[in-house]
Design a protein that fits this description.
Layout: H1 2-15, E1 28-32, E2 37-40, E3 47-54, H2 61-71, E4 76-84, H3 89-98, E5 106-109, H4 112-116, E6 125-129, E7 135-140, H5 145-152
Parallel strand pairs: 3-4, 4-5
Antiparallel strand pairs: 1-2, 1-5, 3-6, 6-7
């Protein structure tokens, strides 16, 4: 009898889309381009939005950023994460220079953190998490009104 219930529960687990499962985001720390370490952990005081992109997908983030700014940025905590290749100190030093005049951008050297959020190279990813770290919704790719409708209510 137990074997049948285990099989049925596993079967239904795989039928439920990942965005509907109760997933809790892992805590992480990354350094920004100015050398400051930022730690993201849950529970937090606000809902958290992660915008993850690499060099080939960073232009896809513009529409998302504009939409969140127009909505009002004070109600959520926002973190932009740049996925970068790992390399020697000189490569990292030069790369940091490209970001110096921008707001805080967390630098994910080697993609260690972005992999935890199932980031795919070349496609920007947005994640909205509740105060306890539960994933509310996730979208990939460039901004569209259809995708934005999932985030508007939060």
């Amino acid at each position: 009898m137990f074997k049948h219930w285990a099989f049925i529960s596993i079967f239904f687990f795989f039928l439920i889309p990942g965005s509907l499962r109760c997933e809790t985001a892992p805590a992480f720390s990354l350094q920004d381009q100015h050398g400051y370490v930022k730690t993201v952990r849950f529970p937090s005081e606000k809902k958290t939005v992660l915008i993850i992109a690499d060099r080939s997908s960073f232009k896809q983030t513009t529409g998302w950023a504009t939409a969140f700014i127009q909505k009002g940025v004070s109600q959520n905590a926002y973190y932009a994460i740049a996925v970068l290749g790992d390399g020697p100190w000189f490569y990292k030093w030069v790369t940091r220079g490209f970001f110096t005049h921008k707001p805080s951008i967390l630098l994910d050297w080697g993609g260690r953190i972005s992999r935890k959020f199932q980031y795919q190279k070349g496609i920007c990813k947005l994640l909205l998490m509740d105060k306890d770290g539960t994933l509310i919704c996730s979208e990939s790719g460039p901004f569209s009104q259809k995708k934005w409708a999932r985030f508007k209510g939060y």
